[in-house]
Design goal:
15% of the residues lie in helices and 41% in strands. By secondary structure, it is an alpha+beta fold. The strands form two sheets. Strands 1-2-5-4-3-6 form a six-stranded antiparallel beta barrel. It has a six-stranded antiparallel β-barrel with strand order 7-8-11-10-9-12.
Amino acid sequence: MFTGIVEEYGKVGGLDLFADSARLTVTGPLVAEGLEPGSSIAVNGVCLTVTRAADGQFTLDVMGETLARTGIGALAAGDSVNLERPVAAGGRLDGHIVQGHVDGTGVIMQARQQDGWRVLRISVSAGLSRYLAKKGSVAVDGVSLTISDLGENWFEVSLIPETIARTTLGESKADDVVNIEVDVIAKYVERLLAGGTR
């Protein structure tokens, strides 16, 4: 489990694409400390498993399902990524419950500068927008955010200076594809209301 509070701004060392999988290499000295094969880490909000780690760099295998559902396959050497290690038992839950199981992608429609902060408007499919609520939680590229406004197939998040400085969302622009994880509680509520049939 993650919190959506990004620990480090990492850099992609490379992405090797295969028939139905990929191998991603990332540099992130802070989060790489103590990593070993089998460790979990969130890369732009996607929970991945470490296969190798040494000297501030780590490698992760990415399956076809993950490539199809997220923006991981579009990464290239030199790209910045948001990194977070799982929350330790007894640790603080400063963001919200983030599983690292991305539900789909969205596209930034606009990025507006305000007085010291930024607003992102992000388009999403109807299948995702039904789980969103104004003032509710959402993870965008692994960053725990509060929805500040909501339309039929879009939502807005407001970024404070700390988020702008410490995450890739500070550099985001119109037409960028971002990973979206809706609040898991909304999905469970829907299933319970449907009588557990979906």
